[in-house]
From TrEMBL:
The protein's name in its UniProt record: VOC family protein
Ranges where the Glyoxalase-like domain occurs: 8-184
InterPro entries reported in the protein's UniProt record: Glyas_Bleomycin-R_OHBP_Dase, Glyoxalase-like_dom
Taxonomic superkingdom: Bacteria
Membrane spanning stretches: none
Length: 281
């Protein structure tokens, strides 16, 4: 399926009904978040927009209006790996040919509050990868029909100096098995063998890393658990313009962090079970 090219669009952190707490937490972490948006599917979000990708805090205010049961049934934390596409219909056709499509493209929208007082609709089409192939979360393709309502300059400057998401980290005992779905989607030429404990997939300016629990502990300080045999989305790394600015921002937010090997590590609580790493560009 070499016609599909891996390029990270955004990552999703499921916060369920904890939108208020997660908004406060990520602002303390130094992210400039958009005002709360509300999807036509009943979910709500805050975004941290970077140069060519973004982070989404996804939850809901009223479970009764939510059209997506998967959102409140899914575990909290990092659970969405999203790929860019310019043609959702073509992606669906290609995934279907290889029995990798979960459903047909879904269209939805979200009103966006702009500085000039207008509130146009940001519109999207998404194509999910078969859920049984992504036991550790969700993966789907997203076509932005109105990208000018997402990547706006006024949202791309952050107190913590983050410029982009540089790594999406999945921990698994069998790293090759965890990565196989992306081999099937994009082709084996996109998967690089880093060492016996890691394989990686270049995704535009970001990298998707599949690492063993032992390497996750050594590199990110992630504590092993009894169910570590199951693949999990466990960490994000960010490029920053200035690690000193990042450090000062975290200190202002009263965020505990450690520094190891030229990077800053912060463990995110509130049930999200997520590690954030910051590197200087």
């Amino acid at each position: 399926m070499s016609d599909l090219v891996p390029y990270l669009d955004h990552v999703v952190i499921n916060v369920a009904e904890g939108l208020n707490l997660s908004e406060q937490l990520f602002r303390r972490l130094g992210f400039n978040l958009t005002t709360r948006g509300h999807h036509s599917l009943g979910s709500s979000n805050h975004l941290a927009i970077f140069n060519d990708n973004y982070l989404e805090l996804l939850g809901y205010e009223d479970r009764n209006t939510l059209q997506r049961k998967d959102l409140y049934q899914a575990p909290l934390g990092l659970n969405g790996l999203v790929w860019k596409t310019q043609d959702a219909a073509a992606v669906y056709q290609q995934l279907s040919q290889h029995q990798l499509a979960e459903a047909e493209p879904k269209a939805f929208f979200r009103p966006v509050k702009l500085n000039d007082g207008t509130e146009p609709n940001a519109r999207f089409q998404t194509v999910p990868v078969k859920a049984s192939r992504i036991p550790h979360g969700r993966s789907f393709f997203c076509q932005h029909l109105t990208p000018e309502l997402v990547w706006r300059a006024e949202w791309q400057t952050h107190p913590n100096a983050v410029s982009h998401i540089s790594e999406f980290v999945i921990s698994a005992r069998d790293i090759r098995h965890a990565a196989q779905v992306y081999v099937d989607i994009f082709g084996k030429e996109h998967i690089n063998e880093i060492d016996p404990q890691e394989v990686a997939l270049q995704a535009g300016g970001a990298k998707v890393r599949f690492i063993t629990p032992e390497k996750a502990q050594a590199v990110f300080g992630i504590t092993l658990t009894d169910d570590c045999d199951e693949a999990k989305m466990v960490a994000l790394s960010f490029g920053t313009y200035s690690l000193e600015t990042t450090r000062q921002s975290l200190q202002r937010g009263e965020i505990h962090f450690t520094e190891v090997g030229g990077r800053i590590l912060a463990q995110v609580g509130h049930g999200l079970g997520l590690t954030l790493a910051f590197y200087e560009n």
